[in-house]
Amino acid sequence: MTTYNGSLHEMAMTTPTMYWNDSCAVSELSYAIERGASGATSNPIIVLNALKKEMHLWQARIYEIIADNPTWSEAEVGAQVYREVALHGAKLLLPVHEATAGKWGRLSIQTDPRLYRNTEAILAQAEYYGNLAPTCR
């Protein structure tokens, strides 16, 4: 990662640079926010990587989701885990969102690419994701 005058934080705070973190892993996003990140992204691959790095944070919750929803398919469980990991990232960005009156501090959540042929379904999912938290889009 390139730094400006030795500091990403300085670059993010003193220039019009929008520094988005390409991860919603708790440790990585927290580190980025401390250095001036103004947003973050999530998609199924990013969330999978976050889970691989931080399964210790999510394993109990994943088992709880499975136990609470015994008829759910793996896809339904995976979708719920995806939403919760992304939502947690969005919550981490809430102080940035509040400090900038909603201008920054957003988490981008990718809609399900399998819905690409169904405009109504993808728009409904985008609206749902956008309403998960004030920081989601």
Describe what you observe in this structure.
- It is globular, with a radius of gyration of 16 Å.
- The two termini are 26 Å apart.
- Helix 3 crosses helix 4.
- It has 137 residues and is mainly alpha-helical.
- A three-stranded parallel sheet has the order 1-2-3.
- It has one domain.
- Helix 2 links the parallel strand 1 and strand 2.
- The longest helix is centred in the middle third of the chain and has 25 residues.
Question: Which structural traits does this protein have?
Answer:
137 residues, mainly alpha, three-stranded parallel β-sheet, 6 helices, 7% strand, disordered N terminus
Residue-averaged pLDDT: 88
Q: Please tell me how large the radius of gyration is.
A: 16 Å
Q: What can be said about the biggest beta sheet?
A: 3 strands, parallel
- Provide the low-confidence segments as ranges: 1-6
Order of helices and strands: HEHEHHHEH
Percent strand equals: 5-15%
Number of strands: 3
Give the helix level as a range of percent: 55-70%
From the helix content, strand content and strand pairing, which structural class follows?
Answer: mainly alpha
Count of individual domains: 1
